[in-house]
Write a structure and sequence with these properties.
By secondary structure, this protein is of the alpha+beta class. The chain contains 1 helix and 4 strands. Strands 3-2-1-4 form a 4-stranded antiparallel beta sheet, with no helix packed on it. The mean pLDDT is 88.
Length: 83
């Protein structure tokens, strides 16, 4: 699959009768998403989803808050230097 592997990928196949089956996902030798299916399937729809892990969201929030604090600090220091 032409997707770079990150934690958070999920894959399903939907069979012609409407059944959904969750597939195992791993990282291939060259760093792409690898979907493994142990049985031979025909006429199925493969769906690959990425859901951002909670740890990534927490890191984004910490980075945003840190950046805002740093900008406020720079502005505060410039005002003190201009006095």
């Amino acid at each position: 699959m032409p997707y770079l592997y990150y934690a958070g990928y999920t894959a399903f196949i939907e069979k012609g009768n409407g059944d959904r089956l969750k597939l195992d996902i791993s990282e291939s030798d060259i760093g792409f998403v690898e979907v493994e299916c142990k049985e031979k399937l025909e006429n199925v729809k493969l769906e690959v989803f990425y859901k951002t892990p909670i740890s990534y969201i927490v890191c984004y929030i910490i980075s945003a808050v840190s950046t805002c604090i740093f900008i406020i600090y720079i502005i505060y220091e410039k005002k003190l230097a201009n006095r």
